[in-house]
Write a structure and sequence with these properties.
With 500 residues, this protein is an alpha/beta fold. It has three domains: 3-86, Arc Repressor Mutant, subunit A, CATH 1.10.10; 144-387, 3-Layer(aba) Sandwich (Aspartate Aminotransferase, domain 2); 390-499, Aspartate Aminotransferase, domain 1. It has helices at 3-13, 23-36, 49-56, 60-72, 116-121, 149-161, 177-191, 206-217, 232-240, 257-263, 286-299, 357-367, 373-384, 387-413, 439-448, 478-499; strands spanning 45-46, 76-79, 83-86, 200-203, 223-228, 244-251, 254-255, 269-272, 302-306, 331-336, 348-351, 419-421, 428-432, 454-455, 468-472. The strands form three sheets. The protein has an eight-stranded mixed sheet, sandwiched between helices. The protein has a four-stranded antiparallel sheet with strand order 12-13-15-14. It starts with a helix and ends with a helix. The model has no long low-confidence stretch (mean pLDDT 88).
């Protein structure tokens, strides 16, 4: 190769000594980028290592190492007696890849269009809570400060001191067998769920359970009844599967089966929260439950029962699950430990009919693989030793105190500006705003005051959305609740005055 050609190439690959990146890596990266962008087409001869090293003023071994790496990756080839060349098998049209860059680039459009169901999904309001500090009144969060982490740590240490070999294997896709047994026992006693341990599939929270249900039971275009208003996470999972969601109104007795039959009589699946409807808090009446089961049996539809916070009921025992009312295999039951214990414990359960156990286990293995066996083992021990039951009893008392604090503070400071409804269960309440008040605008003002809510209108799919704020009270002390209610009152009063 001529001295002129070597000089031209040296301008492409010359390293920058002050960049902080090793010289060998810089030379490798620049030479690779020149090949990828077509500046060095296939068949181009590369100067000898000695000549190139002299031109860019680095040691020959540094250049040799870069050339050797590119040869190993197939970018360069060496012909004995002739020299080193850009590999002739590379595409001849050049510019077939973007050059490496340390700058993060933002594409205005994706490389290829997303499927319609994903484009629709991205238009939903944000599903994930903010990653910063927990602010009043973010709902669906337990009181992490009251969890017995020292006890949990001792239970975990028991396994880490003498860890059984099975806890370090990949584990069964359906979950750790001892945990499946204790979950089945707990559900039978506490929720009147009819199941054996084999029907319990351990999942990484309720969201994964919903994703599995959609994967296994739905074809794109299948019709699904969705509570209106309803849980965004369920709506997102079902939409991502390509299902056609039909919003079915909720009244004081729960999901309206009569309206569902009028809107979509042959739906494939129903998603519902009968024990404590999210977000309105109604409990589905026994008449409505039997009506729903009868319709599903007649049409051979599936019912997905999301029992997301049934453990927390004040003043009465938890309402038995819908699943336990029928001996036909038509109900899939979902529960989670994340809302009961702490959010980062990504463990929940899905109870499926006997005929679906093998299929769900296979799909679970293919989709994500099993959950952490170690965490499942610690949770099993936590339940077996009675700590789970004791924790629930303590939390019911704590949440009842915080719930009453919210009720009293709202009666004192929010009367006339928001109508707060507290039901006898759960970790949240709904405050209805006066006619003509937009909850999204209230939320924006409240955020500037350090407050956080779910706007009720975002939980509607159809156009007839009601406006209100979904309050979470579980993780906040009575003092924080009272102070935050006063802050909200100031926000609402300022909004009312500015609107006049």
């Amino acid at each position: 190769m001529s001295r002129t050609a070597a000089s031209l190439l040296s301008t492409l690959v010359a390293p920058v000594e002050l960049s902080g990146e090793p010289l060998q890596r810089q030379i490798y990266g620049r030479l690779r980028a020149a090949i990828l962008t077509g500046q060095l087409p296939p068949g181009t001869q590369i100067p000898s290592s000695r000549e190139l090293a002299r031109e860019i003023r680095v040691g020959r071994n540094t250049v040799l190492a870069a050339i050797e790496q590119l040869t190993n990756e197939g970018f360069l080839q060496t012909a004995r007696g002739s020299g080193t060349f850009v590999h002739r098998t590379l595409p001849k049209d050049g510019r077939f890849a973007a050059p490496p860059t340390t700058q993060r680039t933002v594409r205005a459009k994706p490389y290829a269009p997303f499927p319609t169901r994903i484009r629709t999904l991205t238009q939903l309001p944000a599903l994930l809570p903010p990653s910063g500090d927990l602010r009043p009144f973010l709902p669906c969060v337990p009181a992490v400060d009251a969890f017995p982490f020292a006890l949990w740590g001792r239970l975990a240490a028991h396994y880490w001191r003498r860890p059984p070999a099975q806890l370090f294997s990949l584990g069964e896709a359906a979950g750790y067998a001892p945990l499946r047994r204790v979950v089945a026992d707990y559900l039978a006693q506490a929720r009147a769920v009819r199941c054996n341990p084999e029907q319990v599939i351990i999942v990484s929270g309720a969201q994964q359970a919903l994703d599995l249900v959609a994967r296994v039971l739905l074809e794109p275009g299948d019709t699904v009844w969705m509570e209106e208003p309803g849980y965004q996470g369920a709506r997102a999972s079902l939409m991502a599967s390509g299902a056609r969601l039909v919003p079915v109104p909720v009244d004081d007795e729960g999901l309206s089966v009569k309206r569902g039959c009028a809107l979509a009589p042959q739906a494939r699946l129903v998603y519902c929260t009968p024990s404590h409807q999210f977000p309105l808090g109604h409990t589905m009446s026994i008449a409505r439950r039997l009506e729903l089961l009868a319709w599903a049996r007649q049409t051979r539809a599936w019912i997905v029962e999301d029992d997301y916070d049934s453990e927390y009921r004040y003043g009465s025992r938890p309402i038995p699950a819908l699943q336990g009312l029928t001996d036909s295999d038509q109900v899939l039951y979902i529960g989670t430990f994340s809302k009961v214990l702490f959010p980062s414990l990504r463990l929940g359960y899905l109870v499926v009919p006997n005929a679906l156990v093998d299929t769900f286990s296979i799909v679970r293995a293919v989709a994500t693989g099993p959950s952490s066996t170690m965490e499942q083992a610690v949770l099993t021990r936590f339940i077996e030793q009675g700590h789970f039951g004791r924790h629930l009893r303590r939390m019911r008392a704590l949440y009842q105190e915080r719930r009453m604090s919210l009720q009293e503070a709202a009666a004192e400071d929010l009367a006339g500006v928001i109508d707060l409804t507290l039901t006898g269960a759960g970790l949240h309440a709904v405050g209805m705003l006066p006619a003509g008040v937009d909850d999204q605008r209230v939320l924006a003002r409240a955020a500037r005051a350090g407050l956080d809510f779910i706007p009720l209108s975002s939980l509607y799919q159809g156009p007839e959305a009601r406006h209100g704020l979904v309050f979470g009270f579980a993780p906040f002390t009575p003092a924080t609740i009272r102070a935050s209610v006063r802050s909200l009152a100031r926000v609402l009063v300022r909004r009312s005055r500015s609107a006049k």
